[in-house]
Amino acid sequence: MNMTDMTAVQLSAAIRAGETTAVEATEAVLARIEEEDKKYNCYVTVDREGALARAKEVQAQIEAGDLVGPLAGVPVALKDNLCTQGLLTTCSSKILHNFVPTYTAEAVRNLIRAGAVILGKTNMDEFAMGSTTETSAFGPTKNPRNAEHVPGGSSGGSAAAVAAGECVYAIGSDTGGSIRQPASYCGVVGMKPTYGTVSRYGLIAYGSSLDQIGPLTKDVTDCAAVLEVLASHDEKDSTSVTRDDTDFTSALTEDVEGLRIGVPNDYLGEGLDEEVKTAVLQAAEVLEKKGAMVERFDLSLVEYAIPAYYTIAAAEASSNLERFDGVKYGYRTEEYAGLHNMYKKSRSEGFGEEVKRRIMLGSFVLSSGYYDAYYLKALKVKALIKKAFDEAFAKYDIILGPVAPTTAPKLGESLADPIRMYLGDIYTIAVNLAGLPGISVPCGQDSKGLPIGLQMIGDCFQEKKLIRAAYTYELCQKKR
Amino acid sequence: MANVISDETIEYVGILAKLELSDQEKEQAKSDMGRMLDYIDKLGELDTADVEPMSHVFPVQNVFREDVVSNGDDRERLLSNAPQEKDGMFMAPRTFD
Amino acid sequence: MYKEYETVIGLEVHVELATRTKIFCGCSTAFGAEPNTQTCPVCTGMPGSLPVLNRQVLEYAIAVGLATNCDITRYSKFDRKNYFYPDNPQNYQISQLYLPICRNGGVEIETAGGGVKTVGIHEIHMEEDAGKLIHDEWEDCSLVDYNRSGVPLIEIVSEPDMRSAEEVIAYLEKLRLVIQYLGASDCKLQEGSMRADVNLSVREMGTKAFGTRTEMKNLNSFKAITRAIEGERERQIELIEAGESVVQETRRWDDARGESYAMRSKEDAQDYRYFPDPDLTPVSVSDKMLDEIRARQPEFRTEKMKRYKEEFDIPAYDIEIITGEKPLADIFEATVALGSQPKKVSNWLMGETLRLMKEREKDASDLCFSPENLAKLIALTDAKVINSSVAKEVFEVMFEKDIDPEKYVEEKGLKTVNDEGALKKTVEDVIAANPQSVEDYRNGKEKAIGFLVGQTMKAMKGKADPGAVNRMLKELL
Q: In the CATH hierarchy, which fold is given to the domain comprising B7-45?
C-alpha cells in the first residue's frame, strides 16, 4: 500500500478498516517530506513530534469508535496563515517569524474534531500577497511537476505539498485566486467556497471581505469531504453564514444532465494561452457530451475586476496589517529612537517588498481626498460586477473557463513586473469580489508537461453544482 | 504615466503606513504606485453615479453576541509573544513627553 | 477700546457604557483587575481574531439617542479609524463615521438668565475604548494594559451651541442625568466613565462666521472644564488681538499648571483613513427593536419631579436634589415604598447622606445602604427605640457598610432606656452634683436646664430619650 499516493477518503477508509494506522500513515508522509521537501520547500514548519503524538491519539479514538468520519486519521498540511495554538504561524513573513498563536483557527478546530493529524504549516506568498509563492520570506516553493517553475500562489506550499505527496490534503486561503490558481499550476483540485461558508476566525487576514478558507486535494471526492468538515457557522465570525446544505459529499454523483453551463467569451480572449484555451474548451465538450447544455456568452466587466480588486484588497490589507507593530508580538527592530521610529523600522524591516507595495497603495487610496475617487469607486464597481454575475446565473448554473491565462511560469519571471503578475489573476479575482464559489480541476497539460486547470464558478451557495460537475468531469477523465 | 507621485506624497503615505523607505525604495514606490493608479483609473470609464457602494456581498446584518462574560484570564499566554514585557504588561517605547 | 468676543463651544462627550462585557468580545469590563487579565485575542489585536457586536451596546446607544431626541439611524455601520498608538492594539479603532447610530438630537438646558435653550446633538456613535498606558520612569518606557481595550463607548457630539462654561456644565449635567436614569453608565468624570473634549473658538460679538477652533482634551472634572474654557478663550483672544491666527489643533489641558499645550507631531497626520469595517455586518434597527427599547425607557427626571410634587409632601428643593442623582431617587422611592414617611426619608437623604457624601468624597452611585435598612432605621426612631443622635451614629455605620440597624442596635446595646426608676435615679444624681445650675434654673435661667439634660444624657451614655429627661428634670425641680 503506497499511502502517499492515496486520497484522504481512501486512506481514512483503510485506517478505519484496520489495514493501516494513522501513525503509519503519518510516518509515511513525514518520510516523504523528509525526502522531497529539500527540493520543493513546501513547508515553513514541519511538526514531526506533534504529528506523531496526535496520530497516536487519533488512532486510539478511531479504535475506540469515537472517530468515524471520512477524514479520521489523515495527515493534513495547513497554510501558514491559519492560527494554530502552540505551533509557529508566520504568514511566511519575517515580521511573524517567531509568532506562536494562543488559539487555533475555527476551521482548523473543525478538522481536528474530524480526526485530522496536522503535519505542519505550508509556505505561501507573504501575507497571501502574490501569485507565485516567491514573496515568502522563507524562500520560494517549487512546482513538483517541474521544479523550475513556480507552484502558483499564494497557497503555493499547500498545492505543491499535495502534488508532491508531502501531505494527503492541504488547506489554503483564497483572496483573489490563491487556492484555485496554485491548484491549477500543480495539477490538484482546489476550491474557494462561498464567502461566509468557512469561518475566518483565526485566519490572519489579508483582504477581509474577500478571504475564504478552502481545500486543496488530490481529487474532487476529497475536496467535497474536506469542505464538508471545514464549513460551519461560527458565532465568532460576524460574516459567517448559517447553511443547512453543507453535506457536500452528497453531490458526488455522475450527473450533469440538463446542467446549463455558460462559457464567457471574455475569458477566452486576448492573453489566453492557446493550449490552455484548447484544454478548457475540450473539458466543456466533455461535459456537453454528458448531457450538459454548454453556451458561449458575454459576461462583461471582466477587465475592471483587477483594478477594483487591487484597490479593495490593498485598502483592507493596509488596515489589517497595522497590528504588526513590534509591540505585542512578532519582529521588533534592534535599535530605534522613540515610538514612531520603532514602528517604522520594525515594519520596514519585517515586511517584504510586495507587502509594502500593497500597504502603501492601500494607505494612499484610503487617505484624505482620495477615498471617494478610489475606494468608494471600487466598491461601486464591485456592485456592478456582482450584478453581472447575477444576470449570468439567471441563465446558467455554472460559469466555465480557465483558472489562469497560462500554465505555471518559470521561477523568477513574475515579480519584476507587478502589474503583469496581477493580470494573471484576471479569471479568478471577480469570484472573490462577488463572494462566489469556484473550483479548479485539472484538465490536462501543455506541451511542456505543465498542468492546466479548469475553473467552474457557481452562484452563491451552489457548491454542490460545482462538485457534481467537477466529479462528473473527473470520472470521464479517468475513464479515458 | 498619468499619475505622478511626488516625494511629498510618498513621504506622507510612509507616515500613515508607518513604513520607512530607502531612497531607492522611494523611487520604486513612486513608479509602482503611479502605474497602479493609472491602472485603477480605468474604473473611471464606468458610470457608477447611481450605484450603491457594496461592502458586504450578502445582506447579512444584525449579528450580535449577548452581554455575557465568556473569557477568563489568559495573560500568560497573551504575553508569551511580546518582544518586551514587564509586570504583566507589554513594554513599548515611551509615549509621554 | 476692547472688542467684545463670543465663545463658541461644542463638546465631544465619551461615555463608557455599563455593560458586563466589552463591545466586541466576551471579556469582563469590571474595574480594578490585574493588568491584562481581562483580555483575549480580540481585544488585544491578535492576528486572525474577529469582532462580534455586543447587543447591549446597541440597545444602550439607541436608548440614549431616544432620550436625547435623536433620529435613530435604521441602517448603521461600523468603520475603522486608523492610527498607530500602543494603547490601540489593532492600530485601528472600530468606530462609526459614515452612518452613526443616532443623529440630529438635542437637549434643553437652563441658561444663566433662567431661560431655556436647546443644545443640538449632531450625532451619537458607538466605538471601542483604548487600553491604558502607564509611564515607567525606571525603564523610561510605556507599559500597556489592555483591560480597558474594547470597553464600549458612545461618543455624543454636540453642535457648537454653547457659549459659556456654565452652559457646558449644564449640558454635561443634563447628559449625565439622562444616561444615569437609563442605567447606561455611571458617568463619572473623575474615573473617566464620562469624558468631555471641548471644541472652542471665539469670534467678535455679532459676527456670523465661526473662528478657527481647537480641541481640548484631558478634562477630568467640571472645575477643570471651566478653567480650560476660560484659559483657552483668553489664549485665543490674545492671539487674535496680537494679530496672529489660531491654529486648528488638539491641545492637552494640564490642570495642575492651568495651561494647555499642543499635541502635535510630524508622525501624527490626523488622516484616519476611515472605511467600513469588513469584519462587522451592518446594523438594521427594526420598528420592533425600537418599540421594545422605547417601552423600556425609564421615567426621566422632569417627569419624576412632577410626580414627586404631586405624590409626596416634601419641599421643592428636596425634590430637586433627590431627583438630581438617580441613586438618591431610587433609594427614596424604594424606602417610601416600604412604608416610611416621605418627609423622613427625604430628611435622611438631604441631611446625613449628603453630609457624609461630601465629607467622604463619595458619589451617589457609591451609596451602599439598602432601602430596607434605611426604612428600619426610620422605624426604630419613630418607635423611640433609639433617639436621634444614636440614629445618626447608626447611620454612619450603615453608610460605610450596609448593616441591619435593628441587629446593630441590639448588639451594641444602644436602645433608649425606658426604665423610669433608673432615669429618676440618674436625674437625682445630676441635680445633686450640679447645685449651681439648679439654682440658675430656679432663678429663671431657662437655658440651665439644657446643661442638666446634657449631663443626664452623658451619664446614661446617650441611651435616654432627651424629651423624657427634660420632663423628669422639670418635675423634680
A: Histone, subunit A (1.10.20)
